[in-house]
Design brief:
The complex is a heterodimer of chains A (374) and B (320). Chain A is mainly alpha-helical and 374 residues long. Chain A has 16 helices and six strands. Chain A has helices spanning 29-37, 40-74, 96-104, 107-138, 144-156, 163-171, 178-182, 197-201, 225-232, 239-252, 255-263, 268-279, 281-297, 300-305, 315-318, 332-369, and strands at 11-15, 20-23, 187-189, 192-194, 213-214, 217-218. Chain A has a two-stranded antiparallel ribbon. In chain A, helix 2 (40-74) crosses helix 16 and helix 13 packs antiparallel against helix 16. The longest helix of chain A is centred in the C-terminal third of the chain and has 38 residues, at 332-369. Chain A is flat, with a radius of gyration of 32 Å. With 320 residues, chain B is an all-alpha fold. Chain B has a domain at 71-146 and 208-311: MetI-like (MetI-like fold, Orthogonal Bundle). Chain B contains 17 helices and two strands. A two-stranded antiparallel ribbon of chain B has the order 1-2. In chain B, a hairpin with an 8-residue loop joins strand 1 (54-57) and strand 2 (66-69). The chains are: A mainly alpha (374), B mainly alpha (320).
Chain lengths: 374, 320
């Protein structure tokens, strides 16, 4: 390096008519790499990167390990549970548990029934929640705040608090006493009852239907109707949360979109179905995923509405020890636990498949939601 | 005269102002919920309150059960006669006080981490949301009586000869205590951290939705703000406390309330599982309603206090 080139001027090497070759005085590669990789800044970045990766992998391990252990246990034969050397990898590989649960616990029937139940309720919930949330997010009307408060209220009340009255409601289902009125029971509005002879004379419901009409209402237990009715009115499990999430999402959608549609002569409903809904597909899939899997995994409402003598087999009925696998030996406790875990694996398997397909939308839904709490 | 008015009236309706028409459309949208809330949900709530003051008499022959009023009897029984209700109640509230800050801190930390650009971000996100979907309802019931997972986790314990299980006790409590003793912090904090770390599986499982809400909140912070503080030379530590934390504070409030609601409505909650247990006993269903309503009122009071206290510190970014 000589004195002339200290200001790093390009040095002309060769000049032709329309080409010029210049030579810069560059810092050598070694120096440049040194500056880049041996600085404190880079060190900090690497340390943070490694630390973050280890942390994330560690937590991912915590999340996934229970599933691994369940899957590992499900392939073990009965002898593996008394063998001290066997922990995670089975020695006597066997598929008995899967086979017996499939056959004896009527897995397929439970699967089909639960699929119909979860699919229908989740679809209804997604659409109803979209509807309500859009109304709350985009329209100013008297009572908007009150309705939103009611949504939050319905989310706050734990279902254990109302389980007895929920059951009684659907054991004798009646809205505003309409069924009771038609059946000759007089008036019944919010528990206020009134009857006289003329009212009692009204008996439109034929007596042949009496087996469905128990007392003064329709018996809906042991059917899918209670859950479908709750979904239709946005009152099912955690629907308040879905309405809240969707409301925040719709608030983030710019008003100009709808305004331009209105100016072009599109009605409110038309705008909602042709512009807003297609826009919110990732968010809707997120809500559908939640609604579907929470209904699939639910054992509270199912055990509440389907009494013990119900003929419908649903997912919670799958859990149990198949008769052919009942044994008496030292490892019995562990073996039964493994069987119950295998039931769990078989119950969640369809959800895992669905999750693999939908998780892309889940993440997308989050990114576009632009949730704000104002 | 009268005819003219008759003609005018529908005309005026047709030309209702835009605001009015929009208000009407809004009502149509929320109608399903409002209808269901007033005609199905409210009667259920009223019935439930009524039942908690009643005794259930089951008549034979498939007849509708009859409810007889017994006044405050169920509430008195729950508070004075029941052997473990009050104890469970205190235990449940103590758990809540312990868990909620932990879940909030953890989910915020994870959300910030998962919001950074890195390799495999989508995969990690997908893994961390698994518990939201899979660790509820039936799985929770199975997990509650699972002896197998503890057995399998002992695998590492045998090699090292300590016998402790791997995932339920990731770091031995001794190590943490030694580490903290040098730092001279209070014994209470040491215990809090060590119990939290050993409880991490539970916390990870319960912070899925919170993580989701935080992530969405982080996404809505304008990148321009970060860029400008970076130019001004702020470190990432400062950026977090001066920018991210205030901007995310409304979400912290939302999440705190959601966590309280979630933690007292899940089946794994001690009080709730005790209430379900009581529900299945004879004459237990009315008693359990009374218990649940008392618990609900207490939690409602807690939500009120937390929301009131936190909203004083929440920062709202002014828009327009």
């Amino acid at each position: 390096m000589n004195a002339q080139n200290i200001d790093n001027k390009p040095r002309v090497q060769k000049e032709t008519k329309n080409k010029i070759k210049v030579d810069f005085e560059r810092t050598p590669l070694k120096e440049r790499l040194k500056a880049k990789f041996l600085s404190l800044f880079f060190l900090k970045k690497v340390v943070w990167y490694v630390f973050r990766l280890i942390l994330l992998i560690g937590i991912a391990y915590i999340v996934l390990f229970p599933f691994f252990s369940k899957i590992a246990g499900s392939f073990m034969g009965p002898d593996d549970f008394v063998d001290v050397t066997v922990r995670l990898i089975p020695k006597n590989f066997s598929l008995d548990m899967y086979k017996e649960i499939w056959v004896e616990q009527e897995y397929l029937e439970a699967f089909v029934n639960t699929l119909i139940l979860s699919g229908s309720t989740a679809l209804i919930q997604t659409f109803i929640c979209c509807f309500v949330a859009y109304g709350l997010a985009k329209f100013k009307f008297k009572g908007n705040g009150l309705v939103f408060l009611a949504v939050i209220f319905s989310l706050t009340i734990p279902h254990q608090t109302i389980q007895l009255s929920l059951f009684m409601k659907f054991l004798n289902f009646d809205i505003l006493g309409i069924v009771q009125f038609l059946n000759g029971g007089g008036l019944n509005i919010f528990g206020w009852e009134y009857t006289n002879e003329t009212l009692a004379a009204i008996d439109i419901i034929p007596d042949t239907w009496e087996k469905f009409v128990d007392g003064y209402g329709i018996t809906l237990t042991n059917s899918f109707w209670p859950l479908i009715i709750l979904s239709l009115f946005g009152l099912a499990f955690k629907n308040g949360l879905y309405i809240f999430m969707l409301r925040q999402f719709f608030r983030g959608v710019p008003d100009e979109l709808e305004e331009s549609a209105y100016i072009d002569g599109s009605g409110v409903m038309h705008t909602f179905f042709t512009i807003i809904l297609p826009l919110s597909v990732p968010m809707m899939i997120t809500v559908f995923l939640f609604a579907f899997s929470w209904q699939w995994m639910d054992d509270f409402y199912v055990s509440l509405f389907f009494t013990t003598n119900s003929e419908t087999t649903l997912m919670p009925d799958v859990i149990g020890i198949p008769n052919t696998l009942v044994t008496e030996y030292a490892g019995q406790n562990l073996y039964y636990a493994a069987i119950r875990n295998t039931c769990g694996i078989m119950i969640i398997a369809p959800l895992i498949v669905m999750y693999l397909f939908c998780q892309k939308y889940l993440v997308q839904g989050i990114e576009r939601s632009g949730l704000t709490a104002d | 005269m009268t005819q003219e008015i008759k003609v005018k009236a529908p005309k005026r309706r047709k030309n209702a102002s835009l605001d009015k028409r929009k208000a009407r459309a809004g009502w149509i949208f929320v109608l399903p919920f409002v209808f269901g809330f007033i005609f199905i949900y409210l009667p259920i709530i009223i019935d439930s309150i009524k039942y908690s003051f009643c005794k259930m008499v089951i008549l034979g022959g498939g007849q509708k059960p009859v409810f007889e009023s017994v006044g405050w009897y169920n509430y008195k029984t729950a508070l004075t006669d029941d052997p473990s209700y009050v104890q469970k109640l205190l235990e449940g509230l103590a758990d809540m006080v312990f868990d909620i800050p932990m879940i909030l801190i953890f989910s915020l930390f994870m959300a910030v981490l998962l919001n950074q650009k890195m390799v495999g971000r989508a995969a990690f996100r997908a893994i961390f949301f698994i518990p939201v979907i899979l660790s509820t309802g039936i799985m929770e019931t199975i997990e509650a009586q699972n002896v197998l997972s503890e057995y399998m986790e002992e695998a590492e314990g045998i090699e090292s000869g300590s016998g402790g299980s791997a995932a339920s006790e990731i770091i031995s409590t001794m190590d943490i205590e030694q580490m903290f003793q040098g730092m001279a912090v209070g014994q209470g904090l040491v215990e809090y951290v060590s119990v939290a770390i050993n409880n991490i599986y539970n916390i990870v499982n319960r912070s899925g939705v919170q993580m989701l809400i935080f992530l969405a909140g982080l996404q809505s912070i304008s990148p321009a703000i970060y860029e400008s503080v970076q130019i001004d030379g702020a470190t990432s530590w400062e950026t977090f406390w001066k920018i991210t934390f205030p901007m995310i504070s409304p979400m912290i409030l939302v999440n705190a309330i959601y966590t309280i609601i979630d933690s007292f409505t899940t089946d794994s909650n001690v009080v709730m599982s005790y209430i379900s247990e009581v529900y299945n006993k004879t004459d237990g269903n009315v008693l359990s309603s009374a218990m649940a309503w008392m618990y609900f009122l207490i939690v409602l009071a807690i939500i009120g206090i937390v929301a009131g206290a936190m909203s004083a510190y929440v920062f709202y970014q002014k828009r327009d």
